[in-house]
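Handoff note, outgoing to incoming analyst
You'll be picking up this chain. Sequence as last confirmed:
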Amino acid sequence: MHIAGNPSPLTAQQRELIALAATLGREKFAPRAAAHDRDASFPFENYEDLREAGLLGICVPREHGGLGADFATYVMVAAEIGRHCGATALSYNMHVSSTMWAGFIADALDMTPEQRADHEHLRAIHFERIVHHGKVYSQPFSEGGAAAAGKAPWGTLARPVDGGYVVSGRKIFASLAGAADYYGVLCTLDRPGATQRDALYLAVPADAPGVSVVGDWDPLGMRGTVSRTLLLDEVLVPHTARLMPEGLYWQAAARFPHMFATLSPTYMGIAQAAYDFTVSYLRAEVPGMPPVKRRMYPTKQVAVAEMRIKLEQTRALFLQNARDAMVDPDKDTRMRLYAAHFTIMENANDIARLAIRTCGGQGMLKSLPLERLYRDSRCGSLMLPWTAELCVDRLGRECLYEAGERDEAID
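Most recent structure output, in case you need it:
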């Protein structure tokens, strides 16, 4: 089954890149996934494969040597990777997001001619590292406060100095910690009265003095992301570290909300994988298992039907969300985005739950992928910037209130 359902409307590039991701996933990523999950180890070899395939530059503009893929193309490729290794897809998103912010999203933002020229010069440096030198960027986001949810300025501070910035702060759940070459750090310009509008997006070299990765990593799921804590202690970076001009990240975040749902393609892939395995298991087509068919039982048929219904509901919203992505979406599009993100995250876990129940006791064994898919799928709804709870909160409020509306206090 194609990750996009019906592949006929896809462009030639979309078909080619999804097929490439499917081949890598099936032949490389899936066979390694269990070991990286067991050991909570980072899949460096998967990134070598992504590098050799040119997929580190999937969203780098063509004029900078990349593949020039748009948002819809990227999320379908990411979902296909998630179908085979959720942890690889999730950490890959952190890398690709850096190129999307600096790439086609920045192209759509309001900048002065001076800002535009400066950004074009600086992003060429970052894109060259990725395309020609195979460097990996990450996007450590969470700090344990309200900033990751968009409710406060970043606690990580960048103090302007001659020639650059001195960065200090702490990022938790930092995917690719210890694996990335550059950390795309979201921080706040250190000046009196700084607000969210003073956000700064800097590529901090992993080997810069003052950068360290600390703490253990032994979570429930997504163990191969190795999302340890990143510490930044008076780290000096040059002006060329900017991934966007000063203050432009705030504009980008406000005008392109679909970027905050780029975790969901991973979970679309996990949902597909749970369904795929269940069908193969009931048809006795799982390699290495006894050829005992279980498809003839009505309870199994009903369960698979329920899974397929949930899967197609999830895919429909996923694909609509991919098509909707744009700068300055209208209110209905934002509402649909919240609904899509919530549905994908929650349905992925529900489909994995049904898969384990339907396949029975075998589904609990670590020799099979279902229990890993279940654990990985449970993590999606907990992840900032848009947890399931935040999606529901925003959706309910924005459905009932227009911008600027308030209720009178009730005595």
